[in-house]
Design brief:
This protein is mostly helical. It has helices at residues 4-31, 38-50, 53-64, 69-78, 86-110, 114-122, 127-138, 140-155, 159-165, 175-185, 188-214.
Length: 215
C-alpha cells in the first residue's frame, strides 16, 4: 500500500493552515470592527465556502497559472510553476479554509471587551501592545478553534486541490484523491484505510474546535 498520500496531505494541510493564519487573523481583526463596506468584504471572504469546488479551482488555476502575473512572479522567484505542485495544492486548500478561520476569529475578537482594550490605551499601551498582550491572549481559544477547523478542512479538500495541483501519485495526490482513485480501481484496502484516518482526524478536529469554542 502506498502511504505517500498521507504524508502529502499532512504537509499540504500544514502549509495551507499557515497561509490561512497569516491571512485570516489580520482579515478577522479588520472585520471585527465597524466600517463602511464591511458587509461586502465579509461576503467575499465567505464566498469560497459556497462556490462549487471546481469553480473555485478554475478561478485559482487562472490566477496562479503561468500566464498570470502572480504565476509569473512565483516562477521567477522559485524557478518552477505553482500549479501541479503540492505547494499549489496548499494554496488551493488555504483559500477553501480561510472562511472558517476568519469566521471563528471574528467571533473571538468581538468577544474581547472594548473596555479592557481602551483602558490599556489610556494607560499608554500602543496598538501593537494591546494586540499582543490583550486581544490575542483573550481571543486565543477562538483562534485555536479556527486553526483546528482550518487544518481539518485543508486536509480534506478535493475539488479545488484537484483543479490546481492535479492528481499525481507521489507528488500531489492527497488522501481524498487517493480514496477516489482507489475506489475506481476497486482497491478496498486503500479506501478503507484512508477513510478511517481522514474520518478520525476530522472527528478529533471537530471535537477540539468545539471544546475551544465553548471555553
Amino acid at each position: 500500500m502506498d502511504w505517500s498520500p498521507l504524508g502529502i496531505s499532512i504537509k499540504t494541510a500544514l502549509l495551507a493552515t499557515t497561509i490561512t493564519v497569516v491571512i485570516g487573523i489580520p482579515a478577522a481583526l479588520l472585520l471585527s470592527r465597524e466600517w463602511r463596506g464591511k458587509h461586502l468584504v465579509s461576503s467575499l471572504v465567505i464566498l469560497p465556502l459556497v462556490l462549487p469546488p471546481t469553480v473555485l479551482g478554475y478561478f485559482l488555476l487562472v490566477l496562479l497559472g503561468k500566464r498570470s502575473p502572480l504565476g509569473q512572479w512565483y516562477e521567477a522567484i522559485f524557478h518552477h510553476t505553482l500549479v501541479f505542485t503540492w505547494q499549489g495544492a496548499a494554496v488551493a486548500a488555504s483559500v477553501a479554509s480561510i472562511p472558517l478561520m476568519v469566521t471563528q476569529a471574528v467571533v473571538a475578537f468581538t468577544s474581547v471587551g472594548n473596555e479592557i482594550q481602551d483602558a490599556a490605551r489610556i494607560g499608554g499601551a500602543s496598538e501593537l501592545d494591546v494586540l499582543r498582550y490583550i486581544t490575542l491572549p483573550l481571543a486565543r481559544r477562538g483562534l485555536l478553534a479556527g486553526l483546528t477547523l482550518s487544518f481539518a478542512r485543508s486536509l480534506g479538500d478535493f475539488g479545488a486541490t484537484l483543479m490546481v495541483a492535479g492528481d499525481i501519485p507521489g507528488s500531489t495526490q492527497t488522501m481524498p484523491l487517493a480514496i477516489y482513485d482507489a475506489l475506481q480501481t476497486g482497491d478496498t484496502k486503500t479506501v478503507v484505510t484512508f477513510v478511517v484516518i481522514a474520518s478520525a482526524i476530522a472527528i478529533a478536529a471537530t471535537l477540539t474546535a468545539g471544546y475551544f469554542a465553548e471555553r
